[in-house]
Design a protein that fits this description.
Blueprint: E1 7-10, E2 14-18, E3 31-35, E4 42-46, H1 53-63, E5 65-70, H2 76-79, H3 82-89, E6 92-94, E7 112-115, E8 118-124, E9 133-137, E10 142-146, H4 164-179, E11 185-188, H5 197-222, H6 231-238, H7 247-263
Protein name: Glyoxylase, beta-lactamase superfamily II
Pfam families: Lactamase_B (PF00753), WHD_BLACT (PF17778)
InterPro entries: LACTB2_WH, Metallo-B-lactamas, RibonucZ/Hydroxyglut_hydro, Sec-metab_biosynth-thioest, WH-like_DNA-bd_sf
């Protein structure tokens, strides 16, 4: 991609191994994160990504002894290889959705994952998907956001699993962490690391509010209520200046916006 993002080491505890699955929705590819306390033997692997042997080999080499695999959410570009990789390294998979777990332990908002001095706090951030989680690493002032916040551009609210109301609440939760100086950087599921979290979260919140107003204006132009509007017709008004190749993804977010407006 244009900025040459290729992963690397960040903070004292984070390393990103970039998966070879670039695309419109995945940007440069999926970021597989390896977390390890300095000097510790065992690691935590977040989002093993696609089932590409070369990628999993690279993750295994960088991770060494893996204590547990965590999933930010169930979408295949993050979760496809989770079970295969976990079985390979002899670890469990923890996720909010029981269907994606390997072993008896799940994950939920407020949980704390501790491995050899490493502390990872689980923050529920639904919206992009119903099971989206973020992982806060307090010692590095970083939060792994999966697809809730991307390293470039903005994300899709994947209706109907994802909902706009939940997404706005999740952005507010992350913003509160950044405002309290608990989080300074974002380690996303796609795209480069964000070194200054607060202005990006400000932008994300403003962008969603602006898009919502644009959808309201489009409904006025089309003279239809949100509940009966044709999502594609709304996309063609709101995203008229956007490459039509992106309209399919935009329609998911528009469906979420229409559902939000219908309920409010």
């Amino acid at each position: 991609m244009t900025d040459g993002w290729s992963g690397g080491s960040f903070g004292e505890r984070g390393r990103c191994v970039l998966a070879p699955n670039p695309g419109i929705m995945t940007l440069d590819g999926t970021n597989t994160w390896i977390l390890r306390e300095p000097g510790a033997a065992r690691s935590v692997v977040v989002d093993p990504g696609p089932a590409v042997v070369g990628h999993l080999d690279a993750v295994a080499e960088a991770a060494g002894d893996v204590a547990v695999v965590l999933l930010t959410h169930h979408h295949a570009d993050h979760s496809e290889a989770a079970r295969e990789f976990a079985e390979r390294v002899g670890a469990g998979v923890r996720a909010l959705d029981p269907a994606y777990r390997l072993g008896s332990e799940g994950l939920a908002d407020g949980d704390v994952v501790e491995v050899d001095g490493l502390e990872v706090r689980v923050v529920g951030t639904p919206g992009h998907s119903g099971d989206s989680l973020s992982f806060w690493v307090p010692a590095d002032g970083a939060v792994l956001t999966g697809d809730t916040v991307l390293g470039r551009g903005t994300t899709v609210v994947a209706h109907p699993d994802g909902t706009l109301g939940a997404y706005l609440d999740s952005l507010d939760r992350l913003h509160a962490l950044a405002s309290a100086h608990e989080v300074s950087s974002i380690w996303p599921g796609h795209g480069p690391v964000i070194g200054d979290a607060l202005p990006v979260l400000d932008h994300y919140i403003a962008h969603r509010r602006d898009r919502l107003e644009q959808v309201r204006a489009a409904l006025d132009v089309l003279d239809v209520p949100a509940a009966s509007a044709d999502p594609r017709a709304v996309v063609e008004v709101v995203y008229a200046d956007v490459d039509p190749v992106l309209w399919g993804a935009a329609e998911l977010s528009v469906r979420a916006q229409l559902a939000f407006l219908s309920a409010h």
